Amino acid sequence: MSTNVEDVGGTGAAAGATTTAGAGPVVTMTERAARNVKRIQQMEGAVGQALRVSVVPGGCSGFSHDLFFDEEARAGDHVFDYFGVTVRVDPRSMKLLAGTEIDFVEGIQGSGFALSNPQSKGSCGCGKSFNV
Prior knowledge:
By secondary structure, the protein is an alpha+beta fold.
C-alpha cells in the first residue's frame, strides 16, 4: 500500500500529527496517550507496530472501541502519526470515530485509554460500549 503522508499543523493533540487524510486528522491522540502507547509497545514487544483503532459490534449498547497493535496496513486504511505513534483506522470505523480524541487517564480507580467519541449518543452503565 502506498502511503502519502501530509504534515498537519495546529495545536493540541493534532500538533504532533501527520495524516493520509487530505482534510487533516479525524481521530486525534494526545501526547500523553502517545507516550503510553510507546511504553506498552516496549512491554509487549510491539515496537514499530501501528495502533489499530476500530469499532466492533458488541457490548450491551451496540458498539465497542477496539485498540490493538497491528503489523500490516489494510486497503483503504486512514493512517495518522501522533508524536511517533502510527494509528490506523479502517474506513467503516472512521465513520463512527469522526472527531474522536484518544487520551490516557489516570485516577484513583485505575488508568487506561479513554476515547472521547462525539458520535456516541449513549453508553452502557460500565462505559465499555456505546450506541450511535
